[in-house]
């Protein structure tokens, strides 16, 4: 209640995405996947682009050089950016609306900028009634919105239903799967698009990842071009779209044809040749395989192909690879649409707003934390000194709203990239993170099914999969043998099956995340810093994006792990 009251006080103060066929000929004008609109030709120099505000040794004639500061003094509000005001009477269109990040964004917009007009929410559902039900159960009735409920009291439901409009659709389909008449209405009304739809499974089948993260971007841009009043498009990507780049990684856009492997080769040998990465070619490659191979075999090949293609071009996994291609699609199609790409690192539970610790589902680091607390994760395949880049979800949301204001006012046809990440301003190592977990579970241990407290030991680190797998198997065998002595023969057989599944799961889990346990990059966030500098003092309070101030020990012990226990585990694993 206290946090909700504080939020209300801030609110009161604010008001007084290999063929040799050219891409443009690969698909017909009426294609539902890619059309002649999808190209990567060099744009007219009349089109304005962003300078990243940092030295890249790029020629000033590069397609993304344009000084943002040329516009700021004339357009931005004198007293801050004007974050609250820009949302007044605006209509938004949000994809991925029931996802973790989008829900927190929706909640904050309704709570802090209540004069917003309508927010159209693209929801996967069989019909309007099912979409309405998902809106009710996955948004309106969730605990995330408790502060909003307290603010509006009995009028809460009427208020929120007047603002949130569920729309049946699918980001993968032409016209985003929407009814033609509804889509025409929305295209006429909306001022802003926030694209939060994605599939974040790291080792997803390649065909599915391409459909979600690449074709999805294409279909979105086709719709965006129909929106005549569109002032800005926001697209959520990931900081890990930087792939196998190392060192300090700047907020540089991806352009069609680029790849990390190509960067490395040409930097060492400028005359080196490497195939260009092209979205349409990847989709066409997969489509031809699907037509040539039986279904079961196709699925197996797709599972392996994503990782192979990713590594060929310089990315760690299918997810980050297809997100980078998705960025290329957006850049190649945007033309004069003002566009902002937000690249968060690993998103974690809320730091402050609407209240500390809210989270939906076990996010990237959370399975490891829970396994560790249960005594099932005694070792990790990682460098203890490797940086773990984390950012609370509410700070991603605040950065989004501030960026909307800054570039919504400017409305220049630029592509701006923001790393919403902590490793540059507030580094956290793997060993620090896991020490905080050790400290928490030593003080607040889980209780097993027999009522015994689970004792955790300090984490052991491994630098190769063979040693790690042997250790995990050996340690879990000890647990299995101890329990087996106390169980009957039938139960012992079940325990053996459970043990085998557990070991196999941990090996697969560690294999997927191995690249990030030895990650050699950290993310420059200069554009975030500029954004913060542009804010007024009051905006910095209500839209906090200062990652440098987070005390990671306090956050994990006092906020994040308790939040995972409360909102995800929900008492399924007891604590003493």
Automatic annotation (TrEMBL):
Question: Gene3D superfamilies attached here?
Answer: NAD(P)-binding Rossmann-like Domain
Catalytic activity field: a long-chain fatty acyl-CoA + 2 NADPH + 2 H(+) = a long-chain primary fatty alcohol + 2 NADP(+) + CoA
Q: What is the E.C. number?
A: 1.2.1.84
Q: Does the keyword Membrane apply?
A: no
Q: Domain (Thioester reductase (TE)): give its ranges.
A: 94-399
One Pfam family in the UniProt entry: NAD_binding_4
The record's comment on protein family reads: Belongs to the fatty acyl-CoA reductase family.
Q: What does this protein do?
A: Catalyzes the reduction of fatty acyl-CoA to fatty alcohols.
Name of the featured protein = Fatty acyl-CoA reductase
Organism, as annotated: Solanum stoloniferum
